[in-house]
Amino acid sequence: MSPPRLLTIAGSDSGGGAGIQADLKTFAAHETYGMSVVTAITAQNTLGVQGVEGITPAMVSAQLDSVVSDIGVDAIKLGMLFSEPTIHTIATSFTSLFSLEAHPPIVLDPVCVSTSGHSLLPASAVASLISELIPWATVLTPNIPEGILLSGWEGEITSVEDMRACARKLGQLGAKWVYLKGGHVPFEKAGGKIVLDLLWGLENGVEVLEERPWIDSRNTHGTGCSLSSAIAANLAKGLSVPDAVKRAGDYVAGAIASSYPVGAGSGPINHFHGTMPRTLLLPTPTSPTPFTDVLLAYDADAWSRYVNHPFPNGLAAGTLPLKCFLHFIQQDYHFLKQYGRTNALAAYKTEDMVEMAASMEITNAVIKETEMHVQYCEKYGITRAALLAVPESVTCVAYTRYVLDVAAKGDLLDARVVTYPCLLGYGQVGARLVAATEGVDRSEKNPYWGWIKEYGGDWYQGAVKTGMDLLEDTVVKSPISQSRLSELALVFQKTTELEIAFWDAAMEAA
Known about the structure:
With 510 residues, this protein is of the alpha/beta class. The protein is 55% helix and 12% strand.
């Protein structure tokens, strides 16, 4: 069976980072067959564009007719179109080859300005782009500056509501879907910057708002070209527009995160990160935990439900029924025994003495936790012997055996990742609640505040820092493939869900 046939109609980038070169690399990375119609050639590198020359409209038309008449096409990506005559020629060719009602998916990336700031489309051609080609677009993929230009938006875009309104104005131009990319305007959020991309469907009114961590990298040359090409490849494979866009966004985010230095300026992304060993950025002062960031972003909803769970919030407020807390503290004692064994197993799986010592440091912190649990139980009349005699709940068994199974069967990294949600989550919860100004009761009337302070205190936060550094160092020393990263993200997600279930069981005990 032949692979999907993808056509890019765009300019050439002599530096290889953007244009048809980026498109063809993206097509290849998606296991599709790539073809090209060249609209212009550029002299450009990572520092900028030094020169541009257009291909005659007649030659553009000849390329397009030649490819479609013989090979055929399953999806088309439109990029740098250079001039008004070229735009008119492409629209005319589309009319002769297809119909507005029935044509292959067309993804239009309205390239107007290069990453370095060089104009790639005359102002006089913008009106032709809007009237002649945007109505053909299955998906229109402007960035914020392009969205402002095409929609006639007045002022700046500074909020999600602005993005939403701009996307709707763009939708009036005739594209079936608008994908407004927010990478040029990252938003501030607790914990760092984020990028918001908004997909809006003209016909069905579907809106999808995608949030990703902002990646601190200068290697972003060709991101728009690659994203639109990835969307086209996914559409050619039969994916829905929302799914095609989501996967394309994930692909480009991974390509940025795993990029490597090329040239002295804005370097290219890593188009083939799925087949290369290093899929993550090395830690930097502004992005010190790239692996952790990927794990948290994999299922951000689950992580939010975990660290904002009603159970710890009830502890901080002093409103949690005592029966819930006692159920938790007894089951958590049993959990921590297996959790300590798993961290000890991680120490066994390495021959690096520094890593071994760090794993034992975490194990010792777990032992301290268990003693803290014993003291709480004794406070409420539950002796150590009675605590040991409490049978493990089904929820506890399911969680602990999953953790032990993954750690026993897997390698050192499996053991680190499967124990990470517990370590990191309790640390985030403790730090958040200790710093909170509302919803907490720090008085002596709250019998649980001491528990919150322990996890927000220096000893536990130090254990979290040790575990985090261990995890990041392990990935730096032994780079992982994209498929391996996906496996570990699934382990992290599963363990997070088990943590949620553990606290759910405590709440249900009331």
